[in-house]
Design a protein that fits this description.
The complex is a heterodimer of chains A (about 325) and B (about 300). Chain A has 14 helices and two strands. Chain A is mostly helical and about 325 residues long. In chain A, strands 1-2 form a two-stranded antiparallel ribbon. The longest helix of chain A is centred in the first third of the chain and has 28 residues, at about 40-65. With about 300 residues, chain B is mainly alpha-helical. Chain B contains ten helices and two strands; from the N terminus they run H-H-H-H-E-E-H-H-H-H-H-H. Chain B has helices at about 5-35, 40-60, 60-85, 95-115, 140-165, 165-185, 190-210, 220-235, 240-270, 270-295, and strands at about 130-135, 140. In chain B, strands 1-2 form a two-stranded antiparallel sheet. The longest helix of chain B has about 30 residues, at about 5-35. Chain B is globular. Classes of the chains: A mainly alpha (about 325), B mainly alpha (about 300). At the A-B interface, helix 5, helix 6, helix 11 and helix 13 of A face helix 4, helix 8 and helix 10 of B.
Chain lengths: ~325, ~300
């Protein structure tokens, strides 16, 4: 695993480095286990987990490695979803058209907003991404021909050259898993590349990177566009999971939840985003089945996690195993 | 699009702007002085409205309800500061966002549990209900004028506090560089608490004042919070003057945009697409405005912090 040492040069090889392998193994085997339980429900839940994992992954990529805390990431998910929805409302359902359109639309939005957002720093960046997210949210809500605030139902899941491969839940599950794996490997490769080093360097000290001669703004904008496209991919898949598209996908609460997922899993690890998405959605599902007031438990839990459990799940495991190794 | 409608909508925009200013003023201070992102500022506004409804039901007097609601909101705000926020000032923005997000979740749901999910309402005080003739043929609700007046009054008081008093001077200094102020021997924690409590009360005040014309419901603070963020970003974080000007600007642009976008578009396109595109453009306006401002002035119109 030579590239892992590039990601975290100062860390010694650690049991945790097998974590991504373990995570993907679990995800690959999950449908087998699901077959013994309420299969449709479990498959649906885990497909949703993976879709949000893709979105959270993209956020972790810019946030954890570039220090760009975007509070409007759900906008990309929404743009991806609406690309599918609007095309399908006009009778275009082929994945070969809708996926590129979803990616292109989110890339264009990321490029345009990134040009404005990335001129600002820290708090301003958080706020302005938040505001752009709200902008898309309200625009989607005012699209009367496409359901307005109520959203719209998809007639069918995306098709491929006339076939309907996504119709089968299991096939769809593995398709999403492949997308997640591809997104993970792509982010990981980018982080370890020369481009990724400059990007990470800009997080540490943008002035230094600029002095060395890199155009920090350009690097950040490319990364922002990449993250936006991965977010759009998640949106494309999300529309297919629930077969429904609505502005609610991009409300600022959704963006907040994506940040929570990233922080939950452990920021700046990539695979932590997958763990975080799973933890968040399973917790939401679990608490939701106990009481309808699950937010009364979940809210304070977030506060406690921030106050006492820095580094998320991954950090926790790191600390536990680290201590075990020493003792 | 008649002239009298334009006049009325301008007043409505002003009223909305004043409301935004009341919320943004506290936010920009907390933000400027403590460098702390408080997403929970919006729920303070919601809480103010709910507390006023509760105290009004108990006492039957609007003024008493207002005072009690402000006091209760202040106590609650300081309690939150003491229990949670105090431990977050030194953390990075991401963690502040998550923790205060958790508080929003808790309070929005808590309000639902305590007061129910159905919208509540607060009656306008007898004396100030009804309408007034502003110009021949133009009637305007008195209460909205009261909101405008009280907002401008608060603005004036804030201006005097910030420019003329010792605490105001420390606040300004803190917004410019909190660390130096602390090094000069000022008890920065106490200053933080005063600023925070004051901001909380302003948000609650906005909630009480708007309660008679909006429905009081869970989550009512969320949308306003985002707009308040837009306001303080445009105005320049930490700048009271910036918050004031930006709030009025946003209030006017948003209100006028929503009322006249379709009419204006109909001048250049057929009515049916205008009706579709109009609302979409109207809801984008303030964000486009923000993008333009930040593109040319990345630190807002009135940058404060000397970094």
């Amino acid at each position: 695993m030579t590239d892992t040492t590039l990601i975290a040069p100062q860390r010694k090889p650690h049991a945790l480095e097998l974590a991504p392998v373990f995570i993907f193994l679990v995800l690959a085997l999950a449908p087998v286990a699901a077959a013994f339980g309420p299969e449709t429900y479990l498959l649906g839940l885990f497909t949703r987990v993976m879709v949000f994992a893709i979105a959270a992954l993209a956020l972790d990529f810019i946030c954890g490695y570039g220090g760009l805390v975007s509070f409007g990431h759900a906008a990309f998910v929404g743009i991806g979803a609406y690309s599918v929805g609007i095309l399908s409302a006009h009778g275009v359902t082929d994945i070969l058209i809708s996926l590129p359109v979803a990616l292109a639309a989110s890339a264009i939005f990321a490029y345009l907003t990134g040009t404005v957002c990335l001129r600002t720093k820290s708090v301003y960046f958080i706020m302005i991404t938040l505001a752009f997210g709200q902008m898309v949210y309200f625009v989607a809500g005012s699209l009367a021909p496409y359901g307005g605030d109520d959203g719209m139902t998809l007639q069918v899941r995306s098709t491929l050259l006339g076939f309907q491969p996504f119709k089968n839940d299991r096939v769809f599950y593995y398709a999403v898993l492949l997308f997640l794996l591809a997104a993970y490997l792509a982010c990981r490769a980018i982080v370890a590349s020369r481009f990724g080093r400059v990007f990470r360097g800009a997080k540490e000290n943008p002035v230094r990177m600029a002095t060395i001669g890199y155009d920090v703004f350009k690097y950040q904008r490319i990364a922002y566009v990449i993250a936006g496209m991965i977010g759009g991919l998640a949106g494309f898949l999300l529309a297919n999971v629930v077969e429904f598209v609505s502005p609610a996908y991009m409300s600022w609460q959704r963006s907040g939840e994506l940040i929570i997922m990233v922080l939950f899993g452990g920021i700046g690890t990539l695979y932590g985003a997958i763990v975080g998405a799973a933890a968040f959605l399973l917790l939401e599902d679990g608490l939701g089945s106990i009481t309808e007031n699950w937010k009364l438990i979940f809210g304070p839990m977030l506060v406690l996690i921030v106050l006492f459990a820095r580094g998320g799940v991954v950090g926790l495991i790191e600390r536990l195993t680290g201590r075990a190794g020493r003792g | 699009m008649s002239l009298s409608l334009l006049f009325v909508q301008t007043l409505n925009g002003l009223q909305f702007g004043v409301l935004l200013f009341l919320i943004a003023a506290g936010l920009t201070l907390v933000f400027g002085v403590m460098d702390f992102i408080n997403l929970a500022h919006g729920v303070q506004y919601m809480l103010g409205a709910y507390l006023a409804v509760m105290f009004y039901a108990l006492t039957g007097n609007f003024l008493v309800a207002l005072v009690l609601a402000l006091a209760a909101a202040l106590v609650f705000g300081l309690l939150l500061e003491f229990v949670v926020f105090r431990h977050l000032y030194e953390r990075d923005h991401l963690e502040q966002v998550i923790a205060t997000f958790g508080i929003i979740m808790f309070l929005n749901q808590g309000v639902k549990v305590v007061w129910g999910a159905a919208p509540l309402s607060l009656p306008i005080p007898e004396m100030l209900s009804g309408t007034i003739v502003l110009m021949p043929g133009i009637l305007y609700p008195v209460w909205r004028l009261v909101i405008i007046g009280s907002g401008l009054g608060v603005g004036l008081i804030l201006y005097l506090l910030v420019t003329q008093t010792r605490v105001g001077m420390l606040v300004r200094a803190g917004a410019t560089n909190a660390r130096i102020v602390s090094a000069l021997g000022v008890d920065i924690r106490r200053l933080f608490m005063i600023v925070f409590g004051f901001g909380t009360m302003l948000a609650a005040f906005a909630g009480v004042m708007i309660a008679p014309i909006l429905s009081v419901e869970p989550g009512m603070g969320d949308g306003v919070l985002i707009l308040a963020f837009v306001v303080i970003v445009i105005g320049g974080i930490g700048s009271m003057r910036g918050a004031f000007i930006a709030a009025l600007l946003i209030g006017l642009v948003d209100t006028l945009g929503r009322s006249f976008a379709i009419d204006i578009l109909r001048l250049v396109m057929p009515p049916s697409p205008a009706r579709t595109v109009g609302p979409a453009i109207a809801s984008m306006l303030i964000y486009v405005l923000m993008a333009l401002v930040l593109y040319f002035r990345p630190a807002g119109l009135f940058p404060v912090r000397g970094r």
